[in-house]
Amino acid sequence: MNDEELLKSAGLYGRDIVTGEEGYNLAALMLLGKDDVILDVAPTYVTDAIVRKVNADRYDDREIIKTNLVESYNQLLEFGRKNLPDKFFLEDTVNKSLRNTIVREMVSNTLMHREFTSSYTAKFVIEKDRMYVENANRATKEGFITVDNLEPNSKNPIIAVFFRNIGYADQLGSGVRKLFKYSKYYSGKDPQFVEDDVFRIIVPLDDTYSFDYGIENSDSKVIEINNADKMPINYLSAQQSLIIEFANGSVIVQNLVVVIAGCQCEGERRKCKKSCLHYICHFINYKSAFTSSPFTSSQPVIPAPSTSMPSGVSTSVPPRVSDSPFPVLNSLRASVRSLFSVVGVGLPSA
User: Fold this and answer.
1) How far, in Å, CA of 266 to CA of 302, rounded?
2) Predicted confidence (pLDDT) per residue in 204-258, tens digit
3) Distance separating alpha carbons of residues 345 and 272, to the nearest angstrom
4) Which end of the chain is more exposed for a tag (fewer CB within 10 A), N or C?
5) How does DSSP assign 292-350, residue by residue?
6) Per-residue pLDDT tens for 48-70?
7) What is the C-alpha separation between 82 and 89, in angstroms, rounded?
8) CA 29 to mean position of chain CA atoms
9) Between residues 26 and 251, the one the model is more confident about
10) Cα gap 187→50, rounded to integer Å
11) Burial class (CB in 10 A: 0-12, 13-18, 19+), 39
């Protein structure tokens, strides 16, 4: 298939049914045309990319983009990458870029569905607490678009199909669902879609928000995590809740410190709460702890974990579990493993 056949198959080359003339249509020109030809056909076509975080009256960064849609897509994506943080996020076991996903959906929408005959300047604006795209639009209705009332309507179907075929966009309507999904992970808030003669997509921004870091709220108990895609934990077993209390320095589990660390922390407990927790992980992960044989005095001393313990805290192996006055330790091992799997905290290797 040569270039002309390829363009015909994409709907970019056809025949005028009135005049009978054959040639490239406006979609072909806007998608792949040279800048000077686009200027002759659509002199008001432009996308104004602006950053206003510090200097809100003028701008911190700006690019005026007048090239074809394919090149504009790449330039606008690069503009977003340059001016937005790429927060850590795991989807299942895959590291996913929330920034790139959100910017991709916003950019592809404003390029595919704009009204090219309008003199209104399309914009991609990044501010301190939000970013938005806006463009001239042939509105079929007015108001806010949500996942519930979404009625996909392709304004430029040939351009939309071409973008889908080259991987710049997905199925019609999927962008709305993706933005509602990933905006919550990126900023903790929902986006807004405003349908009118000027179409707008507004995505809230919050540089202090991190979905996977773990935040304190009134409805659930969470511990700080920094390496997993996890929601605040609401459903914990009694033992797992006890471990979280230990992580927060609760005196309820003082006796566990005696068993695990070999001495009482007392006054130093607040300073070493995280160290003690890491020490428990290290201790429980010790290879002998998961065998059927009880601890014996001949077992080696457990090396100190990466986080240093306070002075005076022993790192030697505690007494035999069978001799321990705290039998909860037997089932505690499995509970700690399960809890750390839930919250995404890896156990240190022995």
Assistant:
1) 22
2) 999 999 887 644 443 444 334 443 344 344 445 555 555 555 555 444 344 444 4
3) 18
4) N
5) SSPP-TTSPPPPPPSSPPPTT---S--S-GGG-S-THHHHHHHHHHHHHHHHTPPPPP-
6) 999 999 999 999 999 999 999 99
7) 18
8) 35
9) 26
10) 20
11) middle
- Are the C-beta atoms of 221 and 247 separated by less than 8 Å? no
Type of residue at 101: T
Short-list 143, 56, 156, 60, CA closest to 108: 156
pLDDT band at 141 (very low <50, low <70, confident <90, very high): confident
Identify the residue whose tokens are 């209104």: 120
Q: Is the dihedral of CA 100, 106, 108, 111 positive or negative?
A: negative
pLDDT digits (tens, 9 = 90+) for 12-21: 988 888 888 8
- Give every CB contact of residue 250 below 8 A, 6+ residues apart in sequence: none
Count how many Cα atoms sit within 13 Å of the Cα of residue 129 in the half-sphere of its side chain: 1
Q: pTM above 0.85?
A: no
Over residues 134-148, the mean pLDDT reads 92
d(CA 72, CA 77): 8
Q: Which amino acid is at 257?
A: V
CA distance 267 to 254: 12
Stretch (H or E) spanning 52: strand 47-52
Beta-carbon-side half-sphere exposure of residue 306 (alpha carbons within 13 Å)? 5
* CA angle (240, 242, 244) in 5-degree steps: 75
Rounded distance, CA 128 to CA 131, Å? 8
